[in-house]
Predict the structure.
Amino acid sequence: MRLGLISDLHGNLPAFDAVLAELASERVDRLVCLGDIAPGPQPRETVERLRELDCRVVLGNWDTWLLEGVPPLSGETGAMLREQGAWQSAQLDESERAFLEELPSSIEVELDGKTALCVHGSPRSAMEDIYATTPEEELAGMLDGFRPAFVVAGHTHVQLLRPHGTTLFLNPGSVGLPFCSRPANGPACISPWAEYAILTVQEGRVSTELRRVPYDVGGLLELARASGMPHADFWASCWLMP
């Protein structure tokens, strides 16, 4: 069984298309999306492309915020993100909003007798981060006695492969906004590629692949500036150019 994993599309259709093109040649048996689909310069187009796929999808924190309103976020960057969120929410029509409203907070996928628990942030919260530096006791608390073979989570925009007891934590990174750094109270630095992962379980053997795919980042930034999204120049300034 080969499981394709994508997360944090963030309204970046060129990056999403680049990942889908590569996945088309990989013969994955199933595809799972870990949420945060629409926030970005192409919210409607990205949701619609995802809906065309035979793909199970988890609800992300930004998906909830676009439906219910972005909460107060700290600093000048937070204020700009809230304005962008309001614009992105307004781009979604009733059908797209209904699609997001029906998404579950978690799904389980069986891989040759092994369970993969798929969430956005952690098993207990879409807003909880899992990093290489997260203390072991925090990981245990997130699992709360549950011991799946795999926990697959996004949210941090950072690729990760980390064992914890008999559980393997896997983060495929971000399709639309992969972070190369993220200051505590400032804008993130965004890498010029798209990220995804493939998890393979076959005859008891497990292999994981963390992938990066190039695409036309310059074209994306031009598209963002022409989209009408607030603070598009600020957003574009966060990207490293290839």
Summary: The domain at 2-235 is CATH 3.60.21.10 (Purple Acid Phosphatase; chain A, domain 2). The helical segments are 13-23, 43-51, 61-68, 75-91, 94-101, 136-143, 217-226, 232-237.
